[in-house]
Amino acid sequence: MPPPDRTIEEALIGWLPRQRWFAGKGREITGVEIVAGTDLTAPSGGGPLLRHTLVRVRQGDATDLYQVLLGSRRSLPDRLRYAEIVEVEGRHVYDAAHDPELTHVLLSHLATESVVGPLEFHRVPGAEIETELTSLAGTAEQTNTSLVFGESYIYKLFRRLTPGLNPDVEVNLALTEAGCAHIPRLYGWAETRLPGGPPDQRATVGMLSEYLRTASDGWQLATTSVRDLYGSAELHPEEAGGDFSAEAERLGTATATVHRDLAEAFGVREASPELLRDTAARMHEQLESACADVPELAPYADAIRAAYAELAGVGRPIRVQRVHGDYHLGQVMRTDRGWVLLDFEGEPARTLAERQAPAHPLRDVAGMLRSFEYAARFLLAGHKELAPGQTRLLEERAREWADRNRNAFCRGYAEGGGPDPGAHAVLLRAFELDKAVYEVRYEARNRPSWLHVPLGSLPHLTS
Amino acid sequence: MTDTPPAGVMPEERSTLDEQFQGDDTQAAERFGDMPADAVELTGEPIPDTFTHEKPRDPYWYKHAVFYEVLIRGFSDSNDDGTGDLRGLIQRLDYLQWLGIDCLWLLPIYQSPLRDGGYDISDYTRILTEFGDLGDFVALIDEAHARGIRVIADLVMNHTSDQHPWFQASRSDPDGPFGDFYMWSDTDDKYPDARIIFVDTEASNWTYDPVRGQYYWHRFFSHQPDLNYDNPAVQEAMLEVLRFWLDLGIDGFRLDAVPYLYAREGTNCENLPETHAYLKRVRAEVDRLYPDRVLLAEANQWPADVVEYFGDPATGGDECHMAFHFPVMPRIFMAVRREQRYPISEIMAQTPKIPENCQWGIFLRNHDELTLEMVTDEERDYMYAEYAKDPRMKANIGIRRRLAPLLDNDRNQLELFTALLLSLPGSPVIYYGDEIGMGDNIWLGDRDGVRTPMQWTPDRNAGFSKCDPARLYLPLIMDPIYGYQAVNVEAQQNNPGSLLHWTRKMIEIRKRHPVFGLGTYVELPASNPSVLAFVREYGDDRVLCVNNLSRFPQPVELDLRRFEGSTPVECMGGVQFPAVGELPYLLTLPGHGFYWFVLPPPPPERTRGDRVQERPVLPAETEEGMR
Question: Which residues of B83-109 are buried (b: 16+ CB within 10 A; e: fewer)?
Fold first, then answer.
């Protein structure tokens, strides 16, 4: 028999805050309740058991629902010690995400499209799922946990659950159907009915996609290029061995292709000029509050306001569509078949409706261009010991690198059929400034040593 | 050398010679004692198996062989006329054996007016006079075989020199036996879709011959008329040429310019089915009479197209045994320049599987370089975008440089490049002189710049020849970095830390592990884009290769779960590294560093008790059971 929930709940109070993915760190947990428990293994033969649980966590007024895979065994092998949560009634209860002997049960359920209790497993039509693979749990992620199965699949275990189809699953399904080459192949996903919710309400609990085994993310590649440039600062970026511009151009083209497929899958609509005025107003708001927090913004404020005013004055409808929503170099992977876009969840801080709301595709472009600025300047922070003249030279190189790769990305994006960034300068500039202002405020609050990154690109952006 | 067959030995005498060789190991071994004063000392190396073609021991030898490309003219001069020759090469075989070479690849050795480096053959059955004669050639074959070294040579099937008696007969006697040996036409407008390959020098693929009063077809220079393969007599004549050399004991051919044998209206006249059909016929003849010889196709094309020249996969390959994989080299260069692995990863991912008994030939440098013409298609975008826009890439790959100057004589990069050459799938071809890091002479013009005399010693003429230095076919490299006084075989043999010793050691390691030639290639997930990691696997022989393409030191986490329990052993020093567990395997590499690890099978599994007893059971399984 599985151990009683009561004891486990109490143990979770201490265990949850130590998990990277736990969103409520720093606030006291006032209650933990296991609201659903589903056995994914049969209690026979004395083998390890896998129980899928939904845990409601109360922190004062706030309530969140988390997904935890609980394993239990009579004796716990050493290699699982670190994952132990509690020992109760002669059984060890532990985080089963770390137990490859249990995780492949998820593959079996996905392969057979089981329905177990409130859980529903789905397989993408036509996909075949190999089930005898061992998994390794990733440790780097902030919000979810990823299980890599063999060299074939990655299962994204969503930790904090929200009602509705997860946008990442939604978009990947649609793009898979559209035959888009720039996403990892989707194999399946899993949902749960929510306890106490309406009978047709579901929350996505997991997504199984192709594991890009030999891929690296765009941020790593871009900083590799910047590092090479700094290593021979006498050279301009176009002369340096690590030139990234051809990659940036291909990335632009891939982005445009995905935007086109998103437009086809989710539609495009004309947004009235009113929308731009609202957008500009929100941008103004953020600017004013950021200026109050960060005095270093003041010298650029007028130029930024002027750019927002221009946006408000565009006065013609714009075409909006489903976009990535949180687009930067860390969300793209270079594979041996080209660029692949990941993580269509949108900005985690926003509501589901906000994340699904159509926007102008140049928002994504602006996000990526800001990411190039970060890549160009990120390593400057590590070069503090340099002579001032040297720092100036590296600053210059950073500027040149960012410009060269921004231009290449925009060129590739326009060539790939996206709205030409050059022909939409007012939009793009406002989007970029808005993002930069957000970054300035974020860095000032959270990482003051990084403040120079967004600030450093403002003279150029506002000139 | 003593005890070599008499000059002018004829093919029919071969069988006797071969018989002499069988069981003749002692005699062969004795011959090693007789070497030129400046040849290599054999430090107790085991004498390799000799072999005969009659009893092939390893018909797939080419799959794990190390090839060495020799320019006879530039290797060693035995008669002091300033030009290298076959006898000179024979004197250097001990060196090549010491280095660990399995097969020599000779550039054209035939009679020729030399208007195209010997690729303009005027007599298929005679050796170019300055190289020696047929007797010397047979002696070379025998001496090489005695050392376990095979010999293949370039052969041009597509065209001859306009000096060839066939062509002379064809132009002067259209109705004679050779009248139809070439592709004659009254007009110069047939096959308009065939591109002109040498656009710089040729205006058309047709040239008018005033003697015959007709145009003749040529895909290369106008002094190289294409043979007419629609004529059965030509097909037979070329088979006769092949048999001639195979009877002399040659181990195979590199077939030059194979895609162009046939022309057909409405096509680009490349890679036609008729061409493949003829190659199958050639192969069948080789298989019938000469098992264990090799045909190596030169088709300067994308791997996906080249793969056609291996023939039918169902038969294991029934055209050429080998073909060059051209894009590997510039990709390696680009990857190191970009400090990231995707240029290599991508080309490896695009390289199709080849028939079972076939093998790629790969090289870092050779006598002649690839051109951009092969990378114009859309799918080849990557190469074009990266390569054509980078001034350094264009300058250095487009023209011909040797490996060392190309890499700024950086020892770490030379080692990294060599390690990649010896570990990526395919049989490596080393260009003569690159094993000592020879330089080039860009002032000699782009072809001759990398064809200067081999640098053997710091003495006069670098030990290449005793002639008056002014008589050398090309001047020696004499600059302070790459000059023969600094870079030569003798000095590097005396220095255990030299590039030469290092290269020899690497070849030795490669030869210990057939997996490098026979194994599968699987790129590993590596956390760091500057690191290219892959596993070669052939049964229980597994080698893990980790390469840092960046000039900066790099850490990398490898997913080696598939080899859990194995204890990697570094190949150079035999040092055991920590056993592979289920967590990512962390390695740190110095700038341009690399490791080769053997991955021995894990010790017999202590069956994990809990795994067996505690197998999880799906609810569905029990339901099934209950029903």
Answer: bbbbbbbbbbbbbbbbbbbbbbbbbbb
B408 touches chain A (CB under 8 A): no
B385 reaches A (C-beta below 8 A): yes
- Interface contact B606, partner A, CB < 8 A: no
CA angle in degrees (0–180, nearest 5) for B147-B152-B155: 160
Question: Whole-angstrom Cα distance, residue B268 to residue B582?
Answer: 54
The b/e string for B371-403 (b: 16+ C-beta within 10 A; e otherwise) is eeebbeeeebbbbebbbeebeebeebbbebbbb
Residues of A within 8 A of B552 (CB-CB) are 227, 231
CB contact under 8 A, A221 and B614: no
- As a whole number of angstroms, the distance between CA B177 and CA B170 comes to 8
Residues of B in contact with A116 (CB under 8 A): 619
Asked if B552 has any chain A CB less than 8 Å from its own CB, the reply is yes
Q: Do B385 and A239 touch (CB under 8 A)?
A: no
pLDDT tens for residues B227-277? 999 999 999 999 999 999 999 999 999 999 899 999 999 999 999 999 999
CA distance A329 to chain B (A): 14
pLDDT of residue B8: 36
Q: Which helix (H) or strand (E) holds A393?
A: helix A388-415
Sign of CA dihedral A39, A42, A44, A48: negative
Give me the interface pTM, i.e. the ipTM. Answer: 0.83
Structural contact between residues B548 and B428, judged by C-beta atoms closer than 8 angstroms: no
Q: Give the model's confidence band at B620: pLDDT under 50 very low, under 70 low, under 90 confident, else very high.
A: low
The set of long-range contacts for B46-53, using a CB threshold of 8 Å and a minimum separation of 24, is B48/B97, B48/B147, B48/B148, B49/B148, B50/B21, B50/B24, B50/B25, B50/B145, B50/B146, B50/B148, B51/B145, B51/B148, B52/B18, B52/B21, B52/B22, B52/B145, B53/B18, B53/B249, B53/B251, B53/B290, B53/B291, B53/B292, B53/B293
Q: Catalytic positions of B, please?
A: 256, 298
Whether A83 has its CB under 8 Å from any CB of chain B: the answer is no
Give A161→chain B minimum CA distance, Å.
Answer: 25
CA nearest B343 in A: which residue? A336
Instruction: With beta carbons under 8 A apart, name residues in chain B contacting A112.
Output: 620
**Whether B309 contacts B300, CB under 8 Å:** no
* Cα gap B421→A80, rounded to integer Å: 42
Alpha carbon of B524: minimum distance to chain A alpha carbons (Å):
6
